[in-house]
């Protein structure tokens, strides 16, 4: 654990694991020495990685045992292929049996790896089932989103299955990336080059305001670690039984009717009654969290 | 197969009250003396938040109605071009709606409902992930298509020439569209290749098979046995340590 600020956004998957875990506690499963590379990338003459773009293992955080998976956004956009997906699935299955204090998923992924699209899609479905099985076994799963690829495609769905979603404003969470929507529907629907708009539609502050992210932190790995420690002692539980899911269904329907025409986060800030909607993108996470807290106290 | 003729073929005329409402389909049906619930998407739906909530709401109604009694099997119909592509849907968190649907299907499974998906028409990407792929068994009906993305779009994104992808697609089930490729990889349990045959009896047998694997995810193992996915099962078990 370093006392200096480490940008979570800029850090590699391994650096993020080192920053979140207690010093020296990380033990990797299926490490690079085992050379579990993707045969499908090799067949296309595309570069391979010895860890297939994801680091999985066990560690302690503030002394508590956890299992951790961290996707490497700099390898194929953190995209999920057969081996990559199987490592995350295996970790969640281990969690259901070993019952650690939590599973930490450091998500940084555009979703399915197209070079092995079918294997990736199936793998994400297997991760979804293994994740819900781990939760049913009593193990909470926390997602961390603050990397350059955000959490999109199937990994955006996986993230929203987690009990806690810890984000920075820099992290983005959604299903279809802005580039895909622009390519298919045109620049009028979503201008992917308008970076400010992209963040107002997918960024951490919007996700926190809508209640999808449970904690918003600054782009500092120390803050992500502090949020992990806080979540380990007191975390939200994802809805699981009939009563929970009926309440979740009603809340999702209410959100759609509360924002009938909304297409820009700015309209969400206005509807919430934030004092200076235009200034929201510039607020620190502390200031933003304080404003949200004051609004909920008034309500 | 179009309109309600599909449901006549599956259950027999007069043995179902499945209603098609735009891109949403649902209703009760019977197989012999067993009541089943049909829920799904229709007419190559682009699944948006409203459709996702309609599916989830219906799953919750079935689970609630059967609580304390005999949980009905649920037959999901997947006919989807994928998720709706829209800035508004993204802003409202379509991924969260899909996660909610997945949780509802998982609740149904944990509550004792057998779950089976029939792919009718197309099953693409996010629209298939949300509910169809979470069932304990998946059947591809004749002429069903399954894919993430077509090869031309894939060629643009991966910057690999289309001709090369087409050649490789013939040898590898890993990225080429096709229900048969998903069968080889274990994600489609059975291919129904002909519209002939006794579909109600076949469906009954599939539901019995779904019950046998309920709660287990056998897809990676099946994919290895069928030679379509060699590493998923081995690597997952290595990490799981079991």
In short:
With 299 residues, chain A is an alpha/beta fold. In chain A, 44% of the residues lie in helices and 13% in strands. Chain A has a 7-stranded mixed β-sheet with strand order 1-2-3-4-5-6-7, with helices on both faces.
Task: Provide key terms for this protein.
heterodimer, A: alpha/beta, 2-enoyl-CoA Hydratase, Chain A, domain 1, seven-stranded mixed beta sheet, 12 helices, about 45% helix, about 15% strand, globular, B: about 240 residues, nine-stranded mixed beta sheet, 11 helices
Could you characterize the architecture of this molecule?
The complex is a heterodimer of chains A (299) and B (242). Chain A is built from 12 helices and 7 strands. Chain A has helices at 13-20, 39-43, 82-98, 117-136, 154-161, 178-185, 195-202, 204-209, 221-233, 242-258, 265-272, 285-298, and strands spanning 27-29, 54-61, 64-71, 102-107, 141-145, 164-168, 215-217. In chain A, strand 4 (102-107), helix 4 (117-136) and strand 5 (141-145) form a beta-alpha-beta unit. The model of chain A has no long low-confidence stretch (mean pLDDT 96). Chain B has 242 residues and is α/β, with parallel strands linked by helices. Chain B has one domain (5-215): 2-enoyl-CoA Hydratase, Chain A, domain 1 (Alpha-Beta Complex). Helices cover 45% and strands 21% of the residues of chain B. Chain B has helices spanning 5-11, 49-66, 87-92, 94-110, 125-130, 151-158, 162-171, 179-184, 199-213, 219-225, 232-240, and strands spanning 19-21, 24-31, 34-41, 45-47, 74-83, 115-124, 137-140, 145-147, 190-191. In chain B, helix 2 (49-66) runs parallel beside helix 4. The termini of chain B are far apart. The interface between A and B is large, with 85 and 79 residues.
